[in-house]
Amino acid sequence: MARRAALSAGEPTVIKTVAFWAGAAGVALLVAVIVVAGAAWPGYSHVDNFISELGATGSPHGRLVNFGGFLPVGLCLTLFSIAAALVEPRSRRRTVGFACLGLFGLGYVAIAFFPCEFGCPATSSDISQVMHNLTSLAGYLGAPVGMILLGLAARRWPGSGLLFPLGLACGLVSTAAFAWMLSEPPASGLVQRVVEGSIVLWVLVCAFSLRRARTI
């Protein structure tokens, strides 16, 4: 009985540790993939080109980017959302929020198997492009809602005061930037990076918040 109680007491710390490393690794790997793969493609522009174009059909290192980059990024971010949702104090808002945020991670898993065409067109008859667009849309719609819900829920979390205003700010910024991206502005790649930067910033801060609170 004593051993079982000790194991049960250690479970929250294990879950928080998993959430921290999954979130931190996912963010770090995503940044590395964008920087390294972008540098390895002459003419690629972080201002004009979408992130997904690094793994587009026919791109110089598409398969490596998709399965060595986007897939593990998606798995890490999805694992982060699952583990973080299990941390106390649990609530319906927390569960729904991390489920919505998890769509962003699942989107990266999906685009590894459904790469876009060059330019990532909004309309296409190609099934891979259609699936790419649908899964990306789900992630970009779900993540802002998730961050706002989690920001509100974070008011009850120990040692996570920053997550409330940051969740609202990142949710609103990513929503506005995504709406702007849909209008196909000249600097579409840069606007997309604002969307994703807002999301991964919140993930990273949340991951470190969980690590600081792991003994609470």
Would you report the number of β strands? 0
Distance between the termini: 23 Å
Rg for CA atoms:
18 Å
Categorize the overall geometry.
Answer: globular
What's the quaternary structure here? single chain
How many domains?
Answer: 1
Secondary structure class reads mainly alpha
Please trace the helix and strand order, writing H or E for each element: HHHHHH
Work out the helix count. Answer: 6
Stretches where pLDDT falls below 50 for ≥5 residues?
Answer: 1-9
Q: Biggest sheet: strands, sense, closure?
A: none
Strand content: under 5%
What is the residue-averaged pLDDT?
90
Helicity, as a percent range = over 70%
Protein architecture, described:
- The chain crosses the membrane at residues 20-44, 64-87, 96-114, 134-154, 161-182, 194-210.
- The protein is mostly helical.
- It has one domain.
- 72% of the residues lie in helices and 0% in strands.
- The protein contains six helices and no strands.
- Helix 4 (127-153) packs across helix 6 (188-212).
- The two termini are 23 Å apart.
